[in-house]
Every structure is written in C-alpha cells, then in structure tokens.
C-alpha cells in the first residue's frame, strides 16, 4: 500500500502510493539545495569568482583544484550546478499510473520522471499550477543555459574522494545521482503529459479510485488531493495555508472523514510569523532606501512576490518611497505578472470581485502603469539604460547560484549602504551567501512562508476529526464510532528542529501519534481494507426472499455469479441450468453450475441457557451442569460424558461416538434457532 | 415644590395608579424619583406629603391593586423609601400602616409580581433609602425584612443579590455607627439586635461549607472592610478571624477568589495576609520552577511547591493558563504600590518570575521539566500573557533591583521591541515598560547625565525605534512616536540622550510621519515634533518667517496641517503644540510672538472642530496673560507702578491686541454655537474685564455707555460685530489693511455692555436644562398618556 518516499525534503515531496491496484505518485518536488555546493554562475565575467584558489587536500595533493574552489573557508564545486533528484531505485517508476501535483513548486522534477523512467501515465494538475510551473521551469532552464560552462566536475563525486572533502560536501547525499538541469524540450514534453483539472472535479482512476483536487490556499491553483475508494479515504495535504493572501482559501471541510492524512509541505520557518516578517521586510527596505542604498530581494518569479508588491503598493506612500524605482527582473517577469491577473477564478473572494468592476485583481497593475514597478527579462538590454539608483530589485534565483541576482550580489555586495533581504524560505541564507563572503552589504532574513504552522495543523486535525463520528456499519446498532485518523508525515515534523530542541510545540501533536517516513523508505499505511462495494443486478435482487430475523433486519441467501471487471464487482443471476442435451457429457454439467440443492439452511438467533437446560431436563437429562466461560457457556451432561459448548457464533456438541445422542441434542439446540 | 408642579402632581398620580394607563417610558419614573429625592432633601418631606395628599393615596392605592404593573410597584416601593428616610414622614406613613403593607412579609412578597426582579430590586432600594434612623431599623427587624434581605443575597438576579449584600453592609454600618459611644466586645450581648442578626448570619454562612453562602458572606465582609474603618470593625474582625482562618485551612480551598478579594480589601493580621499573598504567588513560583530558576533568595515561596491544583490549572489548557497568569499578574500589579506595607514583598523573585514568563512567551526559556515543556508550548506567542507580563514588568521598575537583573530586564525588553512577531498591542506595552525602566534607571543614577548602562541601552534602542517608525502597521508607528515624545519630555535636556538621538535618523523619520496617511499617526508625529523642537532636537528650526528656505520650516508645516488636514486629531495636536510652545517660551516663537499668535488664530478661527477652537482660545489666553500679567495678586511687597504708567501700558497692549485681531476671534467665539467654546471665551473676557476694571479703564468714557452697562446678550454682540464689519468695509482699504478696524474703545464697550457673569451662568447649564425641569417631566408624562388616549380613540 505504500507510501514510498522518494524525497527527503518535507516541502518538496515525492511519494508513491499504491492504493487499490493503482500506483499514484504524489508530487514531484526537486531538491535544489544541492546547488548551494556549487559556485555561482556570473552573468558578467567576475574576476573575483574566476580567481578563487583551487582547493587542496590536507596532504597538499591538488588533483581536485580544477573542480573545487575555496572562498572564505568554504569549498565549492566549480561546475554547472546539479540537482538532487527523487529516489529512482526504490520502485520501478514506469509502473506509476498517475502523478498528482499539488502546487507549482512541487513539480520541478517532473521532466526527470516523465522523460527518463519509462513513465507512460497521466499527470493531473490545475491550470495555474501548470502555467506558473512552466514559468518556473523556463526561468530555471534559461538561467542555467545562458551561462554555458565548459566544465562538468565529476572527480569529487567518487565515494573515496568525497570522504576526504570538508563539510557540507562530505555529507551530501547520493551525489552520484545528481543531475544537470533539463532542457526546454524535455520541459515541453513533460508538460504535454499533464491533464488539467479543476477544484472538486472527480477523476476516476480505473474504476477503483477517485481522486479530487481541493483548494489548499497556498498559491495560485495549489491543491490538496482526496484519494478515495468506496470505503477508504486518503487525504494528501501538501503546501496549504490558512492565511488570507491572494489564492482561494483552503477547503478544509472536504478533508473530513479521512482514514489517513498524508501531511507534507508545512512552513519551513515555524518560528516566524509571516505578518511580522512582512513588517520587517518593509521597514528594512525603507531604511535602506532612505539612506541612499539599494535593496535586493532574491525571489521566485511567482508566489510571495505578488503579496509583497501588494504590500509595498500600500506602504510606499506612507514611507515616502514614491520616487524609488522597483525593478522585477526575470525571463518570465512579464508573463508572471500578467498570469496573476487572468486566473481570477483561482483567487480569493476579494480579488475575484474586483474582476467584475472591472479592475485588475492585483494592484501591481497600477504600479506598472504609474511606472513605479518596471519589469525586464534580464539585466541586459533596456534595463541597463533605464537603471536608476537607489532602487529595489526583485530577481532570481533565491539560491544565489544562478540568475540575474548573481550580478547584483557582485555589484552591490561591497557597500554597506545596500541590503539583501531574503524572503524565500527554501534556502539557508547563510549558505546562499557563502560564496560572496566577505560581504559588506547588510543581510536581512525575513523568510515569508505562509504554509501551515504547527498550531494551525493541530487546529486542522481537530477540525478534520471533529465530525468524524459516523454510524458504525452494523445496521443493528445506532451507535456511532470515532474512526481514528492516521497522520503520516515526514520525520522532520515529529521532532523539534535541531536548533530548538526544547520547542516541543514545533512538532505534530496528534492521537494516534503520527507515522513518519524518510527518504527512500516504505511505510505501510495503517488501515485494513475491510469492505468492498458489490452491485446486485435488479433481476437477481427481485428473486431474493428476505426473512426478518429481528425488527428491521432481514436476511436472504443469494446464489449468484460474481463478475469483476475494471475494479467493479457485480452479482449476476447464475446462468439457468441448461437443459441437458441428450448427450453423454451430462456429468460435466454439475461442475459448471453451483448445486443449489446442497445448501443447508442458515441458522440465526441465540440459545437462552436456562431454557435450554430446562428443555434438556424435560428430555430426561438429569445431571445437567452449566459452566460459564469467557466466550459463553459449557453445558455438561455428566452421565453421558457429553459437552455442549455454546458460544456467540458457534455451538459444539462433543460426545464420544454416540451419534444418536448427538442428533438428539442437535435437534434440541435447533429448536431455539431460526432457520432460513 | 413649586405651585405648578403641585398642580400637575394629582393627575400624574392618577395616571400611575390607573391600570389602563401605561407609562411606556420607565426612565420617566426614574427621573420622577430623582426629583422627589431632591425635593425631600430641600424642604420638609412631611410638608410635601401633607400638602400633596395624592402621594399617600398613591402608596395606599398601589398596595391594594391586585394586578399592578411591576414597574409601578417597584417605583412605589422606592418612593415610599425616599419619604420614610425622614423620621417624621416615616411616622406619618407608619400611622396609616402603609410601610407595613409595603415592606413586611405580608406585602408584595406574597404577590406574583415579586417574581419580577425589578420589584425585588425596588423593595431593596426602598429599604436601603429608609435606613437613615433608628426607628426604621427597628421596624425592619420587627417586620421580618432582615430575613428577606438574607434570602435575597442568593437571588437569581445578580443586581438584586449584589444590592442585597450592600444593603446588609449599610444596615450593619448604620446600626454600629449609632452605637459607637458604647464600648464593644466580641460578646454577642454587647451588639445591637439588628447587628447581632446580621453578624450571626455571616458566621453561619462562613461555617456552612457551601460555596455560594461562603461567597456571599465574604462579599459582605469585603465590602464592609473596604468602606468602613471605624473601631468596631476591628472587633468584628476578631469575631470573624477564626471562621475565615478555618476556611483557609480547607483543602481544596473554597471561594478562593472571594478570599483573595477580602484580603486585598483590608490590611489585617500578618499570617492571613501572607497566606493570601502566597496564593497569588503560587502560579509564578510554578513558572519559575518549570524553568528551573531558583525561586530566589528569599524565595518567592519558601515551602517547596507541590500544589498540584495550581499546576493542573496552568497546564489544563491554553486559555486557563493564560487566564490564571493574567489574573495573578493583574492582582500583583494592583498590590505593588502598597508593597511598602508588605514586609516581605518579594521584589526580586517577582521580577525573575515575570522575566521568565516573558522568556517562555517568546520561546527563549529553556524548560527544565515536563511542566516546563507544556508551559513552553502553551505560552509561546500568547499575546494576552505578554501584555499582562509587560505591564507588571513596567510596574516593577519601582523598586530596588540588583544590576544583573536589570541587565536581564533590558535584554528581554529589547527582545520584545525587536521581535517582528510582537503584535502592535504587545509592542505598545513593551514601549511603556521600557519607558518606565529607563526613567527609573535615570532616577538611581547620581550624576546629572545618564549612567553607562542606560547609554548602552539607548544605543541598542534607537535602531529599533527607527525600524518601528517605518513599520507598515500604523499602530506600531503610533506607539513608537508616543514613546519618543515621552522620552524626549523627560530626557530632552540630558546630553547622553541628545547625542544618541541626534546621531540616529529618528528625528527625520518622525518628521516624515507628519505626512503619514493615518491621522492618528500624524497627530502623534505632530506632538513628537513639537516636543523635539521645544528641546532643540529638531534639525529644522521653526522660524516663523522662513518662507524662502528650501525646506519648509516646522512651524509652516504644522500650520499647514492645522489649516488643511481633513482629520481633527492632527489639527488638535498642532494647536496643543503651539500653545505649549507659547507657554514655555520656545525660543523661535518668542522672537515674534504677536505674529505667531496672529497667524495661528487666523487659521483656528475657521476650524470646524470645536476642540480646536477651544484650544485656540487657550492659546489666546496664554498670550493675554503673558501680555497683561497674571490675575492680580495682592503682593504687599510688589513695586507699585504709578497708575498713569500702568494705564499707558494697558492702552498700548490693548492697541496691540486689537491690531492682532485677537478680539475678533474671542468675540465671535462668545457667539459660538458650541457651548464649550462660548464658555471658554466668556472666561477669557471675564479675566480681561477684571484686569481692566482694576485699572479703571472700564469706568466708561461717555454717558451713553452707562445705559447698557452689563445688560446685553450675545445677540446684541452679534449685531455689534456686524456693525463694525460694515464700518470697516466702508474704510479706505489701507486703514482696513492696517487691521485697526477695532479700537480699544470698541472692546471696552463690549466688555462693559455684555452681561458676562449672566452669560457664564447660562453657559454653565447644560443645553437641556429646560427639558430637565420637573415641571417639564410631569407635563411630558401627562402628554404621553394623552397621546395614547387619542390613538385609542382613532382605533374606534
């Protein structure tokens, strides 16, 4: 049943779930933190970077000095940056039937999976996810391809060599599987395998499973997924937010009555409250610009940047920043800003209503119109002509290893008037800055992660569990039972962050305790399949003769043929006995048709022990003795050396070779039971 | 009672007892009672009853009515109480047994109307009013009313129950007060009957073991000891001591909060006080233990802490934990000013405890036990507790703290001021606490300048203040400005502070906030800039005439806010700053006071906000006082100037004031439709009149004037002002431009003619004083009923 965890990154998950004979991949995240081990790719020749000294082993051996460079005590690989792919050995990925994507950040490994593993299935995602995901991929490919690098380092990956390297290179996992970035062609091919879906749309997979995307409130088109059969419901919650930002709010109610909840993509900075961080962002930006400094914001081309621009739109006048230019530089800047305005149906209510006025849902349109915000595909071309300082620049990539941001880091790093503000939480800002040291520029860390924090998770789990009271499936009882909700999550969520070991509030707190998984691990989902839905054909149903055995409960025996196709089960009338052709093959007929006549009547009811003993006595058994057992009673007929064991669902008569006695006793027992 | 009211009263009484008539507005009844109270206090109540027999009839009639409206019944009970408060009226009413039928057990108690809480409340209030003389107390004891009051203590209506408790306190206090000559012992026989009944009841309740009864008894005692400090209460406490003491020994503690309240209301034997105080300290000791801080030496609680009840409450849920801590901190904050009364006020451990709480709330504390882990999870980010703890931390600045703890306080305050997660309200409290600590630090410092520790604090503080002044959240900008204003007010003269401030960007940032989109922030920025400028800490001189400067002067900037800001708050702040500048003799203002005042009043006179205009008048008054001198003081040693010199000076001053058009402003303010403006103007003119009368300038120069001496009203003034205006318009333009449109003589004429004293009396009355008269009330009541009748007729 799975899940198989192919990624160790809790916010960039890639899990495979085997559910009712379907194999479902949940997200396809790409861990880009591996690129932090590489030197930045400068857009303009950087003497500083090209003159970094090569790294030598302690014994003075310099065979790695072409591949590894040293900068302020850190060692970097001088090569095209590489990414750490999801695990491909754990499971044969060509058997994956579908891939469900929850948001555009969680699909960045898609081309590696769809193009290189023999995958032949379908990918499901919402339209904004696909469109913005394409922009992110396009930007990534562009950033890397426009700075061709001749060298591709591989010596350092040798296990024996890697052992000798300083941390963090020494501890990097599975470096042999790290891959270079995909091409645009692969991106296009991968995206062509995606089928677009809308929120709450029910998608049947092979008749066995139904999957439904729900709004998760985190980003444009971001979704959680419900994966259910008739009797089991698995919720996949990935990258959700309860804050009021631009996307449609999170749909929590549809998660109710889940048996299993796979929880990934919580906030990466649980100790930072996004509101406080936005405040910090604004004040630091204002203080820098007032003093004539420039502000650099390394960011993705979509997501939090929309909210930041909206916040600045309200803020710049009060802070007297109206004359400061804001630049957004990305190969996809224009498309990103425009896409945001056209996906109205995926936006929060406030923004949706603006469309009817009609007004652009995001105020960045006005910033562009009034020339306060200008966007450019790169630093080359128009930008270099219009560039004015002091200014505020939004540009990628947040890892600071490629993209236009590298140029600004080199340009502004030497002055303490300038500030770099980190808002994206995906990369450690200290690691990101390492190859730029020593740095005079001010660094402010205001990670804005709107995804769920642990307090919100515990509220969400309560909410999901609260109305889980549902009638037990036994018709004879009107009791309700609470079916436990099993939470499955990455191991990182079950212990406090290493730096704050005392913060026991920073873990998932639920009952039963959450089950955790780690990279390359298989976890058995904690539910047993108990029921299967079977349809009865109308004519067969007509032929049933129910017998009421208790008020409101009727039983009937049924003889039928079970027909199973496409995971649907149907009971059909048995074929009529074929009139025996006057042939010699008559013997074979009984093999094909079940012999209904052999059926014994079914019994029901319970045996009242006292009355049974009275009846025995009436029939001449004088020495009857009753013992209570854990499961029922034992009636002893001492003289006859016979034992009648009465339990809830069985009755045994144990007597030595006295068939007459056994039959007599059996008939007495049967008197108390109903037959049908 | 005036004749007109006496004439109307019978009809009103008839309306009240008529079940068909319905007094819809019960506030009429309240007003009527208020009026009777005034009447009975002003004249003989017996005479009122005798001259208006309809009143006694009303009481009789209501008692007899079967289905009387509960409002009317309640009214009647209270009315009877008001009259019975006077001994002769009491006797008069007793003769007819009205009181017995109203207040004894045979009265409304047995009627269905008693179910209505308003009737029970009326009954209690009636009894309460009555208890002003011995006879009434005797009557209440005899007719069984005291027992009724006991039972009403547990009334389902909280208002009734609480009034019943207070009534018991009142009766006990009255009874004992009137016996004060007799020395008292704890022996029952020494106490008057009524007091014996009440005290016996309290003792019984304390012994009862049931929480509601104990709580009732404790509430009575709390109120009593809070209100009354006569010597007999000491004897009473000696009687109560064993009962209360045994309550404290019970496990679990019953009615704990009421006990705490009782101890807070009194300062009684040390042991009990210590116990009560320990109850307050327990949650904090628990917190300290959870963070494995030593409970201090001497400890917060000397005995080792094993009160599982407190720990259970703390850990049961977030809301109960926050609730208990907030309550504890609030109580302790109330106690702090009395800490000198408590021998063992544990200042240092309390300070450690509140700092530990703040560390838990910000995730800084390291838990030392499972209790700590849980507390940590509960308290992190809990704004309520953060606010209470910061409040208390601020209060604890008043007290001797060892320097290593002060370092800790400074650290934790900086954490809260710096943290992006501090909510605006938490931040505001953090600023307030910081201010208190800073000021207390400077108090302990012996030198005239700030101590090195404070200097260090300031160095860390200003970058934070800078950032907070740039916050996108207006509440934060606002509290940062308020903090800056306060700090400048106290430390504006200290070199260390000035240096730290001027080397930061704070003054420029504050100035930018004068243009903030949020009006509250603009107002705070105005106040802050006003303060900075007063202390010479503003980069921008306010020079009133610096129109040619590249940068607008602060004065012009504020004047622009005063004339153009669409919101009232910033404008009010500006005029206050201007008044302050003038009052304290701001150097830049003093250069040309006249021009300053003229310009400001010119703008203020057009302001639509009356508060701005009142404040403008205040500015005018300050200027007048500075020009003409204080109210005359009879200083025997003052050098007497010759009256001629004085009179010449006065004439010159008047000339100048006229030139400044100051009187234009004051006179039109006298005709202002907003009463506070007119009152203020009237006060100024009276001051002026006194000032001038002294020098004989008001004696009148011509015969014509004497006719209208002190008889004119504002209508006359308005006409006169219009006349002057017309006259001015007729003048050649250069004369009008000179602003000499008013002559001192004109001003003197107004001062002579207008009945300022009369005007002050009228203006002092609220605008609805006519509508409030009893006559109008009675007429209204009749009119309402009359209208109802008409409607009825319409229906048919």
Feature tags:
heterodimer, A: 676 residues, alpha/beta, Rossmann fold, seven-stranded mixed beta sheet, 24% helix, elongated, B: 796 residues, mainly alpha, Leucine-rich Repeat Variant, 0% strand
The poorly predicted ranges of chain A are 468-481, 585-591
Radius of gyration of chain A: 34 Å
How many structural domains are formed by the residues of chain A?
Answer: 3
What structural category do the secondary elements of chain A indicate? alpha/beta
Q: Approximately what portion of the residues of chain B adopt beta-strand conformation?
A: under 5%
From the 3D coordinates, which CATH architecture of the largest domain in chain A would you assign?
4-Layer Sandwich
What is the helix content of chain B?
over 70%
Fraction of residues in helix of chain A: 10-25%
Structure commentary:
The complex is a heterodimer of chains A (676) and B (796). With 676 residues, chain A is an alpha/beta fold. Chain A folds into 3 domains: 2-266 and 453-522, Ribonuclease Z/Hydroxyacylglutathione hydrolase-like (Metallo-beta-lactamase, Chain A, 4-Layer Sandwich), CATH 3.60.15; 274-445, Rossmann fold (3-Layer(aba) Sandwich); 603-675, TATA-Binding Protein. Chain A contains 18 helices and 35 strands. In chain A, the strands form 9 sheets. Chain A has a 7-stranded mixed beta sheet with strand order 8-7-6-3-2-1-24. The longest helix of chain A is centred in the N-terminal third of the chain and has 19 residues, at 127-145. Residues 468-481 and 585-591 of chain A have low confidence and may be disordered. Chain B is mostly helical. Among the domains of chain B are: 1-143, Leucine-rich Repeat Variant; 168-268, no CATH class; 271-294 and 305-402, no CATH class; 553-572 and 589-630 and 650-696 and 713-730 and 738-754, no CATH class. Helix content of chain B is 70%, strand content 0%. Chain B is built from 42 helices and no strands. In chain B, helix 22 packs parallel to helix 24. The two termini of chain B are 40 Å apart. Residues 544-548, 701-707, 733-741 and 787-796 of chain B have low confidence and may be disordered.
